[in-house]
Design brief:
With 395 residues, the protein is α/β, with parallel strands linked by helices. The chain has 2 domains: 8-47 and 293-394, Alpha-Beta Complex (Aspartate Aminotransferase, domain 1), CATH 3.90.1150; 49-291, Type I PLP-dependent aspartate aminotransferase-like (Major domain) (Aspartate Aminotransferase, domain 2, 3-Layer(aba) Sandwich). It contains 12 helices and 15 strands. The protein has helices at 15-29, 49-61, 78-90, 106-112, 131-139, 183-196, 235-238, 261-272, 278-287, 290-317, 340-351, 377-393, and strands at 36-37, 100-103, 122-127, 143-148, 167-171, 199-203, 228-233, 246-249, 255-256, 259-260, 321-323, 329-333, 353-354, 356-357, 368-372. The strands form 4 sheets. It has a 7-stranded mixed beta sheet with strand order 2-8-7-6-5-3-4, with helices on both faces. It is globular, with a radius of gyration of 21 Å. It binds pyridoxal-5'-phosphate. Pyridoxal-5'-phosphate (PLP) is lined by residues 41, 105-107, 130, 171, 175, 203, 205, 233, 235, 241, 246.
Length: 395
């Protein structure tokens, strides 16, 4: 037998293991120090009460013969898809319920969507990048090209007409940079994709953090229905990182190479995926109820306030950053031209604050650093005070 040798081409990802090692070593040598973690990409607040109620009710249904549920529909229950369709309508985007497919999260869908595309497609990702887009395509043996996100374009990479791509991953608001595309910028990508017969794979896992007048869906921009597939998730929107639920949108008319992409993805899912559990789909529908929307906003507001706390400190210090306004991530330039890992060590040793070195997300991440707003409010304030003290004394 032969193994898939493409796995040999994966670059080992030591980022989070290396962070954990350095923090553990520091804490072991300095047990009295209170280390604050602003590197976490996971949510920390509990599910909304109405969501928990719906999940419990769903579990009770499974306990009685009359209400028991077996395998769900591959694309998810209609009432959940209808709730999501109404949610899109609430911000002015028309997506039919039968263009939505429920899944166990955006990571699986972003990683698995490649199954429907040939190996001989050129994949374009923006750099810095959420590693799933890169690694899943390396596993499939596809060629990957990079579009630079950097200070010159405020970390919103734009297409280069002299370069051809077939599959384009865009993430907005972005992980790790927090930068978000305007409608005008997305229109440029959409026109590029339509001209190149390409498909945009649009990850908007952080759309619920958008506060400014920016598109929350690529379908808010004209031309997207003929070139885009959209992935979204309840992970950050509603604290579902452990509960697991997301959704993918494929316009019914979207075709490439003589094939309908909704039908092809449906066939893929029907073959390899058996759906999301009844209690979780009940919980997901509750997120989109009127009460659910009110309750999840409380947690979102908590994280957004943390983001504002960090961003306003950077404003005070005169440090360049992206994100923070429409994203839980704040992506800052390391002071005095420091490299990402040197700044990591400085911050850990001198301020006892942990973040994520930007260099771990691609070549354009060198010299940058990611802080997140998913931590405790008081600890975030304390971390910011330490950061201010450290950086105003090092100026
Ligand atoms: N997409 C992006 C850009 C992310 O940052 C994450 C999680 O960190 C995901 C997708 C994963 O989402 P899910 O928890 O729904 O798998």
């Amino acid at each position: 037998m032969k193994i898939n040798k493409n796995f040999d081409n994966l670059v080992p990802n030591y980022l989070f293991a290396e962070i954990a090692k350095r923090v553990n070593d520091y804490q072991a040598a300095n047990p009295e120090k209170d280390v604050i973690r602003l590197g976490i990409g996971d949510v920390t607040l509990p599910l909304a009460p109405v969501v928990v109620e719906a999940m419990k009710k769903g579990a009770d249904d499974l306990a009685a013969k009359e209400t028991f549920k077996g395998y769900p529909d591959y694309e998810g229950y209609a009432f959940v898809r209808e709730a999501i369709s109404d949610y899109y309508r609430s911000f002015g985007v028309e997506i039919a319920a039968d263009e939505i497919l429920i899944s166990d999260g955006a990571k699986s869908d972003c990683g698995n969507i490649g199954d429907i595309f040939d190996k001989d497609n050129v994949v374009l990702v923006t750099d810095p990048v959420y590693p799933v887009y890169v690694d899943s395509n390396i596993m499939a043996g596809r060629k990957i090209i990079y579009a630079d996100s950097n200070k010159d374009n405020h970390f919103n990479a734009m297409p280069d007409d002299s370069v051809h791509a077939d599959i384009i991953y865009l993430c907005s608001p972005n992980n790790p940079t927090g930068a978000a595309y305007t409608a005008e910028q997305l229109k440029v990508w959409i026109d590029y994709a339509n001209r190149n017969d390409a498909i945009i794979l649009y990850d908007c896992a952080y759309e619920a953090f958008i506060t400014e007048d920016l598109p929350r869906s690529i379908y808010a921009v004209e031309g997207a229905r003929s070139c885009a597939i959209e992935f979204c998730s309840l992970s950050k929107t509603a604290g579902f990182t452990g509960t697991r639920c997301g959704y993918t949108v494929i316009p019914k008319e979207l075709e490439r190479d003589g094939h309908n992409l909704y039908k092809t993805w449906y066939r893929r899912q029907a073959t390899k995926f058996n759906g999301v559990s009844w209690p979780v789909q009940c919980a997901a529908a509750a997120v989109f109820s009127e009460e659910g929307q009110k309750q999840i906003k409380v947690n979102l507001e908590y994280y957004k306030e943390n983001a504002r706390t960090i961003a306003s400190a950077l404003d005070e210090l005169g440090i360049y950053y992206t994100g923070g306004k429409n994203s839980p991530y704040i992506w800052l330039e390391c002071p005095n031209g420091m490299k990402s890992w040197d700044f990591f060590d400085l911050l850990l040793n001198e301020a006892n604050v942990v973040g994520t070195p930007g260099a771990g997300f691609g070549k354009n991440g060198e010299g940058f650093f990611r802080l997140t707003s998913f931590g405790d409010k008081e600890k975030t304030k304390e971390a910011v005070e330490r950061l201010k003290k450290l950086l105003s004394s090092s100026k």
